[in-house]
Amino acid sequence: MKRFLIFLLCISLFHAVLFSEEYLNNPTYIAQKGAGATESLAQQNSLASLSRFFQQSISVEAKEHTDVTASGSKSILTEDISVKSEVDLFAVHYTKAKFDKKQKLYEVIAYIDREEAWKIYVPRLNESVSSFENLYANGENKKDLIQKIVGLSQAKKNAKETELSKKFDFAMILNPDQAERYESTRTKLSEIGAKIKRFCSQCSISIFCENDYENRINQSATSFFSNLGFTVQKKANDGYECSISVTENAQTLAAGIFFTPSFKIEITKGGNTVFSGGKQLKKIGAKNESVVKQRAFTAIADAVKQTLNEEFASF
User: Fold this and answer.
1) What sign for the dihedral angle of Cα 14, 16, 21, 23?
2) How many CB atoms lie within 10 A of CB 24?
3) Is the pTM of this model over 0.70?
4) pLDDT tens for the 315 residues of the chain, in order
5) What letter would DSSP give residue 282?
């Protein structure tokens, strides 16, 4: 009888090992075990463990910030670390719950079949890759430096919006062999910021603003281009010329003076327009002209920087 009980115990342990080994130590799967007082809790905990596995595999992002002063510029490199990013898991399967008599808990393994999940995931990845590659190629093919900068910046902005870098990280965890096919795009994405900075450092620009007030718009545009790495000059020479025209659209009413301002930005080189943009602002009012001008031109200066930022996708 004693031998029989020992035999049953061995069989039980053998099945427990198979229960774990089939998924936990099998490269075909990504698997994590969860335990709980009920089968449902065990399943939930196994899914939570699987999610944490992906979250903790997210890479560190390096960021560079440039401070520009009268004495020169200074670059500061920082690291942005995030391990709490939401993970959209899919194609998750669960083993049948096993009851551990010793711990008095149910155990469940949540697992993902790498090949099955890859077939589901790759169309999402390809869509983002195709969008980025098209914008990247469009920027690279431009002959003018500012048009290159704008095109590549739009590609970088697109990659950020589609979370392409995180998708690559997820792909490397899900199926490293298949993810290697995207190495060329990963390289472009990792180097695009430095490439944009290099092009910016090769540009010089002069800024002119008609109808400016207290030099607010000029200072805003100068700050923007300086932070990008442009050399800002007083005279155009052989560089770019940025012209900003402002229309106040003033009205004098019983309640006060009101501006409904608009502006246009045009960047030219050698008589050719390489960039243009503009915006119409909402009505701004005050009792006297001095106050309304301060309010209006502060709003215009902010809008000019925002417009440039949207087009250049400032980094």
Assistant:
1) positive
2) 14
3) yes
4) 444 333 333 334 334 444 456 788 888 898 889 999 998 898 888 888 888 877 654 444 555 545 545 555 555 444 443 333 345 677 889 999 999 888 899 999 999 898 999 999 999 999 999 999 999 999 999 999 999 999 999 999 999 999 999 999 989 988 999 999 999 999 999 999 999 999 999 999 999 998 899 999 999 999 999 999 999 998 767 799 999 999 999 988 888 899 999 999 999 998 899 999 999 999 999 988 889 999 999 999 999 999 999 888 654
5) P
Are 33 and 20 in contact, with CB atoms under 8 Å apart?
yes
The DSSP secondary-structure symbol of 226 reads H
Query: For tokens 């589609």, what's the residue?
Result: 162
Strand pairing category for 231-233 and 204-209? parallel
- List CB contacts of 200: < 8 A, sequence separation 6 or more: 149, 228, 229, 230
* Nearest alpha-carbon partner for 214 in 150, 109, 278, 301: 301
